[in-house]
Write a structure and sequence with these properties.
354 residues; 13 helices; alpha/beta; 14% strand; single chain; 8-stranded parallel β-barrel; TIM Barrel
Length: 354
């Protein structure tokens, strides 16, 4: 039996629908964070993002999203709207979105206009993912706030304003240009609060498990049980955003994962000057007991290995969370390793375009 057929059989076993044949297949999408490697410029990192989007489209990925981070020496993606405009011009079919716009920093109306404009540039291709987190430390959050006072408590009301502005034609002042279609608004979250808000407002929910590897699957179940249909989303939809690294050998995949671990450990120790570590550095590094404990704490929430290993692990985690879709976070030191990881993952799930 082909791997894609095995997946569909497993998917049907997880489905709680009365007719298992109605169970949808699992879409695979990609989140890009525009990482700057040593010796690279921001131009190089952004060019790699665009090349990754083109590869994802060629390989049949469902979506390509970009992130928002501020005051970072190793992440070039600070403005999803601007970057999505460039990615859209370099692609033709794949859906594009923000993973996500950090809404407390901005006027919801201005965010609505930015994405309405993108929807007119690239009709039927734009997703708007939003989050409550600062995407930076509080000093940068204060700099982004117009009055220097970040107000994250306003997020639920901001989100309601944003959806009204995009979806209600009678909303005034009107969004200009008018959206080309009803733009999907996704809520990105790591906590019960975000799941409750997504269910209340009828939004698709993206679980940022790569940020919170201890996310409780019962939160996703709560979202599904309490979901209220909206004009844009008639049914609950869960996307699981997780670290996925795939290579031709298990050793290469492990080295890539350990390089990512060392990079994150470096960030935790010195957020103002983190070091992006290579697989060669990871192979020679002797992990301390504290570092080994950290690696163990995050390993259960990711998929690392050869195509077959990653395929089974992704299926297991998707089944645990009842995910309709998986958003792969595949940060590698070498761009060639990332492209190979995308190829292997696409092949594992039968995502490759005809």
């Amino acid at each position: 039996m082909r791997r894609a057929e095995v997946y569909r059989a497993q998917c049907r076993r997880w489905c709680n629908a009365a007719n298992p044949t109605e169970c949808a297949t699992l879409d695979i999408s990609l989140l890009d964070q525009s990482i700057l490697r040593p010796g690279e410029s921001a131009h190089d990192a952004l060019a790699a993002t665009i090349a990754s989007a083109q590869a994802a489209e060629r390989l049949g990925y469902a979506r390509f999203w970009v992130s928002e981070h501020h005051d970072s020496p190793i992440i070039a993606g600070s403005s999803p709207e601007v970057l999505l405009a460039a990615v859209g011009a370099a692609t033709s079919r794949i859906r594009l979105g923000s993973g996500g716009v950090m809404l407390p920093h901005y006027s919801p109306f201005k965010v609505a206009e930015n994405f309405a404009l993108l929807s007119n540039l690239y009709p039927d291709r734009i997703d708007l993912g939003v989050g409550r987190a600062p995407g930076a430390d509080m000093r940068a959050a204060a700099a982004l706030a117009i009055d220097g006072q970040p107000r994250f408590d306003r997020f639920p009301q901001q989100l309601r304003t944003l959806t009204e502005a995009l979806w209600n034609e009678a909303y005034r002042p009107r969004v200009s240009p008018a959206p080309a279609e009803r733009i999907p608004v996704w809520l990105l979250g790591t906590s019960p609060d975000s799941a409750m808000l997504a269910a209340e407002l009828g939004l698709p929910y993206a679980i940022a498990m790569f940020i919170n590897p201890r996310f409780d699957p019962r939160i996703a179940e709560y979202y599904r049980r309490h979901f209220r249909p909206s004009v844009a989303q008639p049914e609950p939809h869960v996307m699981l955003a997780m670290n996925i690294l795939c290579a031709d050998s298990a050793d290469d995949a492990t080295a890539m994962a350990h390089a990512a671990d060392l990079t994150y450990i470096s960030f935790l120790r010195n957020p103002t000057a983190p070091q992006v570590c290579s697989p060669d550095e990871a192979r020679s590094h002797r992990f301390s007991a504290e570092e080994r404990a950290f690696v163990q704490s995050v390993s259960g929430a990711r998929a690392v290995g050869t195509a077959d290993t990653v395929h089974q692990r992704v299926l297991e985690l998707a089944g645990r969370f009842g995910a309709d879709e998986v958003l792969a976070v595949s940060n590698t030191f070498h761009h060639r390793d990332r492209l190979r990881s995308l190829e292997l993952l696409a092949d594992a799930f039968g995502a490759k375009a005809a």
